[in-house]
Design goal:
The protein is an alpha/beta fold and 297 residues long. It has one domain. It has 14 helices and 6 strands. A 6-stranded mixed sheet has the order 4-3-5-2-1-6, with helices on both faces. Strand 1 and strand 2 form a beta hairpin. Helix 1 crosses helix 13. The chain is elongated and about 65 Å long. The relative contact order is 0.25. The N terminus is likely disordered.
């Protein structure tokens, strides 16, 4: 389970990822694509790395010619986590077990007086009534506010890059980098005090998140990795424990898995969150350091 630094940054990181494209226009986006080969003298496989935005409106066309060609060539598709009916049932069981307050407790009542106006404003921005979230633990209530606010702007996970790729490659071989349980552990903290502290901070973010989004939109559309690294990951610089748990440790584990995949003589199309592909500790940089040839930004 993540430590205190991870908990303090967890929802702000989710805010960035879920709201990254809040004002995205219907124009064709051109997100970055990397190609990875070697270093086994042609005896191994190759892979395409593609950065995902997990929630999008239905009219964003990101599947340009390079991405389409890479998907056509690929034999195996790799995602962060599986999303089968069985996996989603396990996720729902985890949420039910760890997402609700004890009977008789109210989230609003647990908040100090100076946070209740922020709570009410965040609910209003999401179009939710207090009764819809008041029985939830803070981490789950914040996620509900995020998803409902996105839905009001015509965004959905079903239109996100991951789910679109999964739908387009139905019937083809898939593999996964993490389990549902591993990702859930990053969402649901153990320490109630830290959970409430982060929730209170996230309420303020939810009130004015839209003002921070336009630069992220522009960077993603342009495939500007330097700007994305600054905007998505820069806020984690003051929270090294959070960055370690959310990005660096996961990237290091994924690097081991990608090196194993690339020993197979196959072509892989790997879709992960865009934040995992930027900066000196992103997967492209780690693969280059490990001796692989990586073309792309």
């Amino acid at each position: 389970m993540p430590d205190g630094g991870t908990v303090r940054m967890r929802l702000r990181h989710l805010l960035v990822l879920f709201f990254t494209l809040l004002f995205l226009s219907p124009a064709l986006a051109a997100p970055s694509l990397w190609h990875v080969t070697g270093p086994r003298n042609g005896k191994g496989g190759d892979a395409y790395l593609f950065g995902s935005v997990h929630v999008l409106p239905p009219d964003v066309e990101w599947r340009g010619p390079e991405v389409a060609a890479a998907m056509k060539k690929a034999q195996v598709f790799v995602f962060e986590v599986p999303q089968s009916a069985e996996d989603m049932a396990r996720l729902q069981a985890l949420i039910q077990a760890r997402g609700t307050l004890p009977a008789g407790e109210s989230l609003r009542a647990l908040l100090p007086d100076d946070s209740r106006a922020d709570y009410d404003a965040a609910l209003a921005a999401a179009g939710l009534a207090p009764a819809q979230v008041d029985g939830m633990r803070p981490w789950l209530a914040a996620l509900q506010m995020l998803f409902h606010q996105l839905a009001r702007h015509n965004f959905s996970a079903g239109d996100g890059v991951d789910n679109k790729v999964m739908a387009q490659v139905a019937g083809r071989e898939r593999r996964y980098l993490e389990t549902i349980e591993e990702q859930f552990a990053l969402l649901a903290p153990d320490d109630p005090a830290l959970e409430m502290e982060e929730f209170r901070a996230s309420l303020k973010d939810l009130r004015d998140a839209s003002a921070q989004i336009r630069p992220l939109v522009d960077a993603w559309q342009a495939g500007d990795q330097s700007a994305l690294d600054d905007l998505i990951n820069g806020g984690l610089a003051d929270h090294p424990a959070a960055r370690k748990a959310l990005l660096d440790d996961r990237n290091a584990r994924w690097l081991v898995q990608l090196r194993a995949l690339l020993r197979e003589k196959k072509t892989f199309f790997i879709t992960v969150g865009a934040g995992h592909l930027t900066g000196p500790k992103g997967l492209p940089a780690l693969l280059r350091k490990a001796g692989f040839r990586v073309t792309g930004p």
